[in-house]
Amino acid sequence: MLNILYTYHWYVEHTKQVFHDFDLTMQQFNVLRILRGRHPEWVSMSAVKEVMLDKSPDLTRLCDRLQLRGYLERETNAANRRQVRARLTPAGLELLRQVGPKIGEAAKAWSHLSDEEALQLSHLLDKMRG
């Protein structure tokens, strides 16, 4: 377990500068990435929260900041007025296009693993979570 936690923090340290350069947090990037996966559809905030890597941040405030910067838009679902949903804007898509290659460069720290080893590690981590 200690090795997994150590590796997580090692990875965060390797990617921290990329997020800093784009004035993003890892959680904000995660929300944008989730919305890109469903683009151009509207996605409920509960669906976003369900698949977030870090479930603890205040999603409303996090999205407020992203919306102020023009990266996403939100609306109340007309069919269910209690549901708020969001989608990426063109500026959000462009930001992800710019950040993606930089994250890829930071991920080169993992490049000493073969594709087979990376897949095996992924399977073992899935197995560990049950």
UniProtKB/TrEMBL annotation:
InterPro entries: HTH_MarR-typ, MarR/SlyA-like, WH-like_DNA-bd_sf, WH_DNA-bd_sf. Pfam families: MarR_2 (PF12802). Residues 1-130 form the HTH marR-type domain. It comes from the Bacteria. This is MarR family transcriptional regulator. It comes from Hymenobacter saemangeumensis. The lineage of its organism: Bacteria, Pseudomonadati, Bacteroidota, Cytophagia, Cytophagales.
